[in-house]
Amino acid sequence: MKYNPKLRRKLRHTKAYNNNTFLNSRDARSIRVQCELVEPELRLKQLGVDHTVTFFGSARTKIDTPDYASAYKLAYRIGDHKKFQDNMAICSGGGPGTMEAVNAGAMDSGAKSMGMGISLPFEQFNNEHITTDLDFEFHYFFTRKYWCVYLGKAFVVLPGGVGTMDELFEVLTLIQTGKISNTRPIVLFNKDFWEKTINFDRMVEQGTISKSDLDLFHITDDIQDAVNYIYDNIKLDR
Questions:
Q1: Is CATH 3.40.50.450 correct for 48-233?
Q2: What string of DSSP letters covers the chain?
């Protein structure tokens, strides 16, 4: 909807920041984007959240599958670890499937459980295992992804579809190009899925990535190995 200034005649005593017609118009999109950048920052500061361990994975994962169980166990073990700090949260995309399992595991471990949800016409709704004040819902994908990555000091990526691949490759691109530090450990969990889905070795052979890029992530099937890899490599002094 394009904002029509002539409506001011009917809204003569309405200040611009209280004018919902304007705020929901196409012309005010930059203001809405700014709100999705500023409000989460203020809320996180008030709640003392400085770092996250961020999980990515499919919204379609069923509760009775090994991937769901792995997501729960990984989040629980990371949140229950002696190195997990009060200013850290375990973060997911806030929705169902893998994200629900992550938030359930985080909450059961006693860690702060954060959900960065997105409003979609299907498939997406924020799950019930998110710490109340850390329950976010975004309109714009890029602001949501910004907050999933910006505070992330480690990433766990479980099997997923287009959205999960987008999130994984965005993080790898940011590290590869030096936009964020390469000291952020990345675990790709479920070796069979990753080795059959993406042929990283072929990308090296083709020269589209460097062999050293394979060191940016760790592929494993073992819960303890994943937890150890994260806590052996995570840097929280930034």
A1: yes
A2: ----GGGGGTTTT--GGG-HHHHTSGGGHHHHHHHHHHHHHHHHHHTT--EEEEEE--TT--TTSHHHHHHHHHHHHHHHSTT--TTEEEEE-SSSTHHHHHHHHHHHHTSEEEEEEE--SSS----S-S-GGGEEEES-HHHHHHHHHHTEEEEEE-S--HHHHHHHHHHHHHHHTTSS-TTS-EEEE-HHHHHHH--HHHHHHHTSS-GGGGGG-EEES-HHHHHHHHHHH-----
pLDDT tens-digit series, residues 53-103: 999 999 999 999 999 999 999 999 999 999 999 999 999 999 999 999 999
Q: Could you tell me the residue ranges of all domains in the chain?
A: 48-233
Q: How far apart are CA 183 and CA 23, in angstroms?
A: 40
Tell me the average confidence (pLDDT) per consecutive run of 10 residues in the chain, 238 residues long: 60 77 90 95 96 97 97 98 96 96 98 94 82 95 95 97 96 94 93 97 97 96 98 85
% of the chain with per-residue pLDDT over 90: 84
Round to whole Å and give the CA distance between 219 and 199: 13
What is the number of residues in the chain? 238
- The residue behind tokens 């375990």 is 90
